[in-house]
Amino acid sequence: MIVVYSGFDWKTEIPRIQQTPWQYVAAAVLCDIAVYCIQGWRWNELLKPVGSLPVWRSMQAIYIGLFANEVLPLRPGEVLRSFLQGRWSGVPFSVVLSSVVIERLFDGVWLILGFFLTSLFVDLPVLLVIGSRILGVVLIVIGAILSFAILRRKQAERWMDRTIWAQGLRHLLDSLESMGRAPSFYRAFLISFLYLILQIGPLYFIQFGFGLDLSFGACAAVLVILRLGSIPPQAPGNVGSFQALAVLGVMLFDVDRQSATSYATLLFIVITVPLWVVGFFALLATKMKLSQLTEAAHQ
Predict the structure, then answer these.
(1) Residue 216 within a domain
(2) Is residue 29 part of a domain?
(3) Please, what's the largest Cα pairwise distance for the chain?
(4) How many domains does the chain have?
(5) Which residues contact 17 (CB under 8 A, 6 or more apart)?
C-alpha cells in the first residue's frame, strides 16, 4: 500500500473518483454480485450427482467463505464454505472439498487460456509468466490425478487399500466418479467460462465511468493479472496486492500512474464493500459468529 500510494495526488484524484457516474458503479456492483450467483449455480451442478442444496443456499455458503477470506488470515473461506455445504446438504465434507478443487481446476484452465490470449497482445511481466507456468504444471498434476482416479478405478482402489483411510477414500472415489461422469460436470465446466467473463464486468464498467478508454479485451487482460497475482498467500482481502496488480495491469495499456491508482482504489471499493455487506448478512443468517463457525469447521 505504501508503494502504491507513494506520490499519489489525493487532492486531485479523490474528487475525480467521487465524480464517477453512479450508474457505472451500480452496473459494476450488480455484475460482481452476479459472479457469485453463477458460482453457486456451478457448484450445484458439480454436486448434483451426489446431492446438493438450493442455489441460494450454496450462494450463502460462498458469501460466508468470501467474507471469511476478507477478515481472516490464511484464506480459510474455501474450507468454511465446504463445511457449511456439507452440513446443510448432508454430503460428506471430503466430497464437498473435492468439488471445490474441481472448481479451481476449471478456473485454472480458463485462466491459463486467458493468459495465453493476453500474452499475444501484451508484454506481461516475467514474474507473471513464471507464475502461469507453475499454475499450468499444478493443473496438469491435479487433472492427471483426478483422471486416473476416475478412469483407472480398479488400480486406484488397490493403492487405496494399502492405506488406513481405505474406506473413506473409496467413498470419495465413488463420489468423484459420479461427478466426473455426469453431464452436469461438463455443464459446470462451461459455466466456469461465464463465471470468468462476468468478472471482467466490474473492471470494464468502472474504467468506462472513469474515462480510461480501455477495451473489453484490455480489461480481460487486467483480470488475468489480478487472478494470477492473487494465487500466492496474501493479506486478508488482498489489501495492497490488489491495488498494486490493478495499477500494474492498466499501466500496461498506457494509463498514467495517477489515473491507474485512482482506478485501482475505486475498483477495490466497488468489489469489496458489497462483498463485506452481503457476506456479513449471510453469516448473520446462520446465527453463528465467524469464530464459532471456524471452530466448528476445525472440529
Answers:
(1) yes
(2) yes
(3) 68
(4) 1
(5) 210, 262, 265, 266
Could you tell me if 16 and 24 are in contact, meaning their C-beta atoms sit under 8 angstroms apart? Answer: no
Residues 6+ apart with CB under 8 A from 203: 219, 222, 223, 267
The answer to the question of residue 2 being in a domain is no
| Structural domain includes residue 3 | no
Which grid coordinates belong to 266? 475505486
Task: Give dist(CA 288, CA 294) in Å, integer.
Answer: 10
Cell of 137: 504444471
Q: Which helix (H) or strand (E) holds 31?
A: helix 22-47
Range of the domain at 220: 10-298
Q: What is the pLDDT along the chain (299 residues), one digit of tens a residue?
A: 888 888 888 888 898 888 999 999 999 999 999 999 999 999 999 888 887 678 899 999 999 999 988 887 777 888 899 999 988 888 888 888 888 888 888 888 888 887 777 777 677 667 667 767 777 777 787 777 767 666 666 666 566 555 545 455 555 666 667 777 788 888 999 999 999 999 999 999 999 888 888 888 888 888 888 887 776 666 666 777 888 899 988 998 888 899 999 999 999 999 998 888 999 999 999 888 887 787 777 76
Burial class (CB in 10 A: 0-12, 13-18, 19+), 284: exposed
The length of the chain, given as a count of residues:
299
Q: Which cell is 36 given?
A: 457469485
Of 115, 141, 149, the residue nearest 229 (C-alpha): 115
Question: Do the Cβ atoms of 136 and 115 come closer than 8 Å?
Answer: no
Rounded to two decimals, the pTM is: 0.83
DSSP 95-112: HHHHHHHHHHHHHHHHHH
Q: Is there a contact between 168 and 94 (Cβ–Cβ < 8 Å)?
A: yes
